[in-house]
Amino acid sequence: MTRLLCIVFRFEWRQLTRQFVPVFALLFFLAMGSYSLYNGKKFVSHQLDGLDSLEQHHRDHRRALLYRFQADTTTAEGKTMAAQAGIPQVVEYRNPPYAAFPPHRLSALAIGQRDLLPYFDIITSKRDVFSSTRTTITNPEKLAAGNFDFSFVLIYLFPLLLMVWSYDIYSSEMEQQTERLVAVQGGHIKRILALKLLFRFLWVCTIAWLLSIAGFWLHRETTGLTVTDALLWLFGVTLYLLFWCAVTWWTVLGKKSSRLTLIRLLGIWFALTFLLPAITNEIVEVSHPLPARTELISAQREEIEHTWDMPVEQLLDTFYINNPQYTTLKSPGDTAHYGNRRFVAYYDLLGRRINRHIKKYNMEVAEHNALLRRLGWFSPVAQMQTFLNAVARTGMDDYLTYREQVGTFHDEWVIHMNNFMLYDKKLDENDIQNLPRFELRENRDQWKKTLLLGFPVFLFVILIFLAAKRKSIY
């Protein structure tokens, strides 16, 4: 077997070096993959620059707040600044905290939905969760088409390279009738064909691996990249190419002409990469459509008007019922229309009312995503895209995890600021220096869930190879 492997590989190498088209195709895909890495790095660098600018503004505004404590009170402007120093509303307005969802892991290789989803949020005591989307202005046509990143090249284009290079490994032998000569001499034609396909598969994998490793190097400026992420990515790349190798092998053993074999392979490629995902999305949209955000925005506006129009006494009574820890602050004199307690009670009740709409909206979104994940098991292409996005932390599940942590931090921030506003206290310099900051936490066992996403594709590979094994050349 080893001798046969060396003979076939040596022959295929000579064929490769003597033909212009395969060499040009390999170089073309190498160049295209390099360009996709450049695009991914450019996108990630843009978001990193935005976060750096946001952090710099945050530091500048904090220094400005601290400067108010040393303002020159001999001037009118200095007296105003000194009087405003430490007021909770001023602190929150001038220097609100922010939550960041930075490019992480291998975002440059698989941008996923990072171009559609906000990657930072400004946190305040106000409850305006629908109308403020922290996204940059982008050409809508580009958003609809998607980014030309490495995952796009791998998912959609690398299968074409493997199929176009391998579709005639048997039909060319059959058309030249050389397979009969091999059979007469006692050769195992099916084993030889398998080794020829293996040679092409390894070459395609080598290009994908080299580009992936180059992507790891380009991603060194971001945080969170681990050996586990790199191994998961290379595993996903190899598994996906192995799937298309199995599809090609099964189609080649159909013993059709070169032209018909190529047409079949291109038809399978189109069906799996475009038609099946489109049908899956259509089924999900019909059975579990995503709720419209415009309805949420309208509901928020109604809640804002209704809550603001409540009598101050009723609003405060509701606040103390919902927050019994502040009952000791209750007094008959809390009727100031623009007092701190009225505003705290207003935003607390508004948040509770809006959260009911959010809960309903999230339930519908969760049902939509759950059905999409279940049907994705029947679409190897969509499943592998989900796998790569999960490795790169650019999928919807990763964003929802971030949003959940933002909600938790928002509640912590509101409680922290209420301790000053409800008691009519000011923040001192030490309080401003030690304001709560958002820290994104990750699940250490995330790699296990990610690895499970590759199981459907692995199962398809086994089934296709078993089906191909039942086929005989003669």
UniProtKB/TrEMBL annotation:
Protein name: DUF3526 domain-containing protein
Keywords, alphabetical: Membrane, Transmembrane, Transmembrane helix
Residues that span the membrane, as ranges: 20-38, 150-170, 197-218, 230-250, 262-280, 450-468
